Amino acid sequence: MRTVRLITCNDAMQAHIFQGALENEGIESLLHNENLSSLLKSCVSNISGVDIFVYEKDYERALQVLRDNQSFPEDLKCCPYCGSADITFKLRSDRRMRAACAAVLSLLVMAPPGDNHWTYKCNRCKALFDKPVSADYKREEESRI
User: Fold this and answer.
1) Ramachandran quadrant class, 42 (left: phi over 0; alpha: psi -120 to 50; beta: rest)
2) Where would I find the DUF2007 domain in this sequence (predicted)?
3) More confident: 66 or 90
4) Where do the domains of the chain lie, and which CATH numbers do they carry?
């Protein structure tokens, strides 16, 4: 059977979580580039990302499983607190010195500086958060209440 690439994850841990979600639904998957992502952490995902492959016949079902689990970054555009889509990606104010040191050190040792110096900020409610959510997620939260 033919396999197709489903998604590229930023790291092996995220890929294993998605692979577990697929397994729970009875969808077999295969990880590619798992070891390189550990060596080149914080590099562009096209270089070091972990690809998840599924059988072609399971592709549509696998896409739906990942959508149900809020797994597509392009769908994550809203504040988890107020649901606003007016969010910005900015450097954390408490980590500016740390980010500058990481940038200088990364230039000296020719290694990526890492990505834990950044945060999202909602321009409507002024909340800071690590990861945005999809509009569907916010609607589901409100319907449960």
Assistant:
1) left
2) 4-69
3) 66
4) 3-74 (3.30.70.1530), 87-144 (no CATH)
